[in-house]
Amino acid sequence: MPDQVTDTHLAPLPESLRKQLEKFKKDLWRIKITEAILAGLLGLIVSFALVFALDRVWEIPSFVRLIILITGVSLFTIFAPFWINRWVFKHRKENQLALLISKSYPNLGDRLLGVVELQNQEESQTALSPELREAAMIAVAHDAKGSSLDKALSATWRNKLALGAMLTAGLCSIAFFIFPSAGRNALKRWAMPLSDTKRFTFTKFDTSEIPNPLYVALDEPFSLSVPLTSDTEQFPDSAEARFGASNWDTFSLNGNQYDLKFKGQRANGNIYLKAGDANLELEVRPLRRPRLKLIQGLVSYPKYLEREDVKEEFIAGQIQVLEGSKIAIIAKAERDLRSAVVGPLVIDKYIDLENLEEAEIQGLDPNDAPKQVEKEITFKIDKDNVLPEPFIVTKDIFTLPISWTDNYGISGLNATKLNISSVEDTPPSTYVQEARKQIYMLHTEVLRFVMQAEDDYGIKAAGIDWNGTFNTPSASAPAKGEERFIVGDPYKQSAQEDIELDFKSRQIIPQKLDIRTWVEDYNPATPRMFSEVMEVFLLNESEHANYQKERMKDALAELEDAMRREQENLDENKRIEKELKNPKNDKSAQEAKKKLDDQQLKEQENQDEVKKLSKKMEDIFKESMKNKNITPKTLKDMSDAAQQMKEMADEDMPDIAKKLDDAQSEKNSEQKTKEDVKEAIKKQEKLLKKMKDTAKKAEDANKKLESSTFVNRLKQAASDEEQIASGLMPDDGILAADYYADLDPVRQRLFQALYLQQQQTTADVRWIQEDLGFFFSRTQKEIHKQVLEQMQESSISEELRKIENEIEAARVFIPMSKALGAAKQLREWAKLLDGKEDEGGSSGGGGGGGSNQEDEDFEFMLRVMKMIQTEQQLRARTRALEQSKRNAESNESQNPLPTESGETKSRQFQ
Amino acid sequence: MMTKKLIPTIIAVTAVSCSFLSAGTSLKEDIRKNGDKPIQLAPKEALKKHSKESKVVANDQDELAADVQDLIQDQTSKKVITLLEEAELLMGEATDLLEAKKTGGNTIAIETEIIEKIYEAAKQKKK
User: Fold this and answer.
1) Contact A758, A823 (CB under 8 A)
2) For chain B, first and last CA: distance in Å?
3) pLDDT at B14 over 50
4) Where are the domains of chain B?
5) pTM assigned to the model
6) Residue of A nearest to B67 (CA)
């Protein structure tokens, strides 16, 4: 209460008036203060009520609540002070009160105002006397007493405010009483609008298990179950929900939850859910389902393979690895994973056919055998990788299902089924490039070929081996050996090597050799694999010459066929010529002309045959050159024959064909056609003559070859006998024993070898005699007859057989002297044959001095070519030596393991 | 008379029987028993063999050089002679290398050059 203003007035108001005014002031103050308080209270209660009411339907934002609170409090904090200031502080004095009264009682008010002012009037200053003043005051007091100043009080809202406040408070109290939790919550939220106090709802959604934001699969319908909490007070039968701005859908209460369903979404958005007074807003983020972007297997090969581990990718969920390998699967997803389901590992048992048959034999039901088994498999998750435990891959087929869920709770679309199967370590293979099944060559030559080796899991080594056999008994052991040429490594799947095999350096004597390449891989269970066998017939000079002779014979036969065909063509051409010259009618001339086309074709066909033949002759010539036992004269005849055949094929026959072609030309006149045909016939006749010459030359060469082979064979037989004689003599010259059984074992082995050698020579001489007989019957040459008769008369075969028996009986001197005697005789016959052949001269040669220069030149060319051949052989032998040296060095340092670099011993060709 | 025939017969039979009795094996039986032995060389042996064989090849090379020398004697064309002489020199080089057991690329290169030289000589002769 403001302090009473105690003025010391010069003329105070009458006591009654003063008291009346005092009472008026107190009443006024009391009413206005009450109004202020009630207004403040009302503001507070109403604001609270507003919050309570709004909270029932709406999640009032904190700023709104703040505004409400401020608004509510402002009646207390702003209005009340203002009201009090206006009605209390500004109505303390009597004059203020008089003014107020004057509003209701103007006269009275005015007189009161005058009287109030009279209190302080000084007599000296005015004419008013104190008695008048007092009388005026008494009169006013008397009038005031008669009026009720309460009417001068302004209209008051006190009652209304009180009523309003009481009603509102009452309502709030009722609400508090009925819904105490809501009330307390509203009170809290009203009093602390900025706090995190959640709005109380009678219906409460339990969002503890619902992630926010909620990740769902992109463009796929999704559902969401929103349960109500256990302390929910109201369970509305339905709830409404929508995604974004779509229409509201109604969902029924299902037990204690609402099962919401939404369509597939592509963009982020919010789910709005309302049930009763509860609202829920959830952010939804659609995401593509996580895929496995990479599936690999870390493959550890079986130990024997000596290979590093590798990573291999699954293709379409499948992988094949080597049987016996260990595989560790790595399945990499697009996003980090929360969980996965791996397995079980399904194993489809490999059915071994042998076991199946065995089971049937034993009367067991093969269907009882487990066909499929399942095995649990552990796994780890490492960020975005699923890592099942490694397992060994056997012959069985493995299937491993994997499903996964990422950290957002989205699972992969479908479980992936991985298939793991095995491949066998197949045996390696090897072959010879452009292999020939049979090769005939001089034993002094070097065999060249290219070997190829392949394996799926690394070549360990590859090489060649050879096994010899003698067609006839021999004192020596047949050749047998092997050599490694390729040192492999675990990663070498293919290798190629140029092989040069020098038989002479390996002391391999003439025999039949079965040569094959071999290859090994790292698998200890795989045996060595071989190529097809190449039969290499290593021939001595005599056999080689014989072989060339046989080839010459075949070539001659083919030449004769070519001659016959040419003769037929010539005859037909002559008929055509005749028809063209004297045609029966126009039609026959036309037909004759048409036949020229056939003739041309036939000529060309024959030309092709002769071309092949000339190549064959060339080859025979080249091969014969390698044989030092074939005389230059024979070689010259061969060369001439080959050269002529080449000319026929390249020049003469094409000319004839061209002429026949020209003869058919439409632009030709009849005369021209006849001339062309005539020209063609002329050329053909010349060609036939040439063919005959060539045939004769080739035949001469063959005869010389054949003949020279007898010489060589006889010389060879003589040489063999000398060797036997030399072998029979003991080193110390002393005979140790008479009987074979009593001989020293070394000597026994020697006699065995000599016996076999003698058997061979006996057979050779028998064959020489027989062949000479046939040869004479063809050549009818005197010298052949002479030698043959001498051989028959001497019974040389019988003599040689006797030597066999002597050796068998372990005698020395008798067989020795007989052998030497036989050798001498054989050499004489060889000399006889050789000398007479030389005296006979070159039967196919041109004869006379005119061809001497040509012969000399040929002789030079021959020598030079032989030198080239010899040098080529030396080079081949050098290469072969170098190759074997490298192999030996490699074997010595790393036998049998491969080199670190895994290089093959490659060869440099020049 | 019977005794005269009998004693030599007994001696002969005894002689034959002794051989059978003491022998136990004959030459033919022993031949049948002997088997093949594969030729497999240990690395050290192979290297020794290489050493021996390269000398053989060296020898053959030297012989060929002698043949070239003989051939030169019969020639009149200077160019042909020059080429053959060059070939002969190269053969000498190759021989030395082979004797030193060097069978590598260098030796093979020289041998190739020899072939070319002789071939050149042959072509020159044809002209």
Assistant:
1) no
2) 94
3) no
4) 2-33+47-126
5) 0.60
6) A867
